[in-house]
Amino acid sequence: MLPPLLILKDRDQSVMVRTYLVKRTSALENRGLEASMPPPSCCQSMVQFEEKMYIFGGAVLGVAFNTVHSFDTKTEQWVLHDTKNSEIACRRMSHSTVVFEESMVVFGGMDLNVVHGDLLSLNLRNFEWSVLPSLGHQHPGVRRSHAAAVHGRKMYISMGLPSHRPPDLWSYDFDSKHWAAVRCNQLFGMPPVSLHGHSMCVSENSLYLFGGCVTAPTGASSYSNRLYEYNIATNMWTSVRVAEYPMPSPRYAHVMAISEGRIVVHGGDSEDCAKYYDDLWFIDIRNTGGGGVLAWQRHRDGGTRRPCARSGHCCAVLGDALYIFGGESPGEAFSMVHYSNQLYRIPLTLSTRLPLTDLCGRWLARAVDVDDICIPPAAASVLKRYRCIEVAEKLMTFHHD
């Protein structure tokens, strides 16, 4: 991912947004006033709270934002929120956001050349910003391009820039308001070097970390496609054993989420932004197979409208769908980058887990009224089985003209 303030644009300095759809992937229509939509940008964050997606921050062409936008998945409407105490929430990119109780918690990030280490909270009921206390003498310091996740009543922060040796993991206790450096019980199994641009998610008692970049003192970059697990209960890291093929390419600035025990990875870039990815990968962390080895699965889908190759985008999961927003995509030349403010929805349950009969049943149920036509009893039972599923899916399916 190129630094937004260093990107050269085409002559008219316009921010180009490319829209693609993939089969069973919907690019949500831009409805309402354009002023209510987030601007095209990258390195912003997105969280899900109730039935809405909240976008905060990001940057484009050397300009960072501190605006808060929400998208209502029921009404399909964007809203630009007028927040209270917004002066304490500096413009930023490459920060982290999580949801705790009824608030969006923001840590770190950067605005142009200033890297932050503040901890902020936005109440998602009254949209008032506040500074969360950081008591005690320990603090993770300023950082960007890190990753964050919530487990119980603690938030975990991993690595980022500036790099730390050895790779560090911090926790913030929302009750005691104290930061604490997590001292692991062993040196083996954890990432060997400090990463940035990686991703992290939580499942049960474990944090899962994937991808990321390491920048050497010489400026050379190397990229990771390893999956690591940190078990909170045992305080131990593990390098997750996965089959050697297929496997996502090494990358950073991708997005990762978890849904029903499956980790989902999309996009990212590598080779100093010479290669961007548009692939979508799954790995079921509940299914170890033989010998405790997990297997990645690539989701292959047809169609011409799909999220194009991108990095620096953000994501969140709501129900059975992955939402992807924004990011940067390669242009016709290395010095040209396209920014996006499109929101995509990818139904996860229609991708790789269902057998062919179930997939056919779901799609036929959308077009066939079982009560109005005569069909074989076996086919009718399949369609009737999925009528109730379709009622729920219609609440989440966005139609296009």
Key terms for this structure?
disordered N terminus, 4-stranded antiparallel β-sheet, 401 residues, Neuraminidase, disordered C terminus, mainly beta
Write a concise synopsis of the structure shown:
The protein has 401 residues and is mainly β. It has helices at 356-367, 377-394; strands spanning 26-27, 45-49, 52-56, 59-60, 63-64, 68-72, 77-80, 96-100, 103-107, 110-111, 114-115, 119-123, 129-131, 147-151, 154-158, 169-173, 179-181, 199-203, 206-210, 213-215, 221-223, 227-231, 236-239, 255-259, 262-266, 269-270, 275-276, 280-284, 296-298, 314-318, 321-325, 328-330, 337-339, 343-347.
Explain this structure:
- It comes from Bodo saltans.
- InterPro entries: Kelch-typ_b-propeller.
- This is Kelch repeat protein.
- It is a single chain.
- With 401 residues, the chain is mainly beta.
- The chain has two domains: 4-353, 6 Propeller (Neuraminidase); 356-401, no CATH class.
- Helices cover 7% and strands 33% of the residues.
- The protein has two helices and 34 strands.
- The strands form eleven sheets. It has a four-stranded antiparallel beta sheet with strand order 1-34-31-30, with no helix packed on it. A four-stranded antiparallel beta sheet has the order 2-3-6-7, with no helix packed on it. A four-stranded antiparallel beta sheet has the order 8-9-12-13, with no helix packed on it.
- Strand 14 and strand 15 (154-158) form a beta hairpin.
- Helix 1 packs across helix 2 (377-394).
- The longest helix has 18 residues, at 377-394.
- The radius of gyration is 21 Å and the shape is globular.
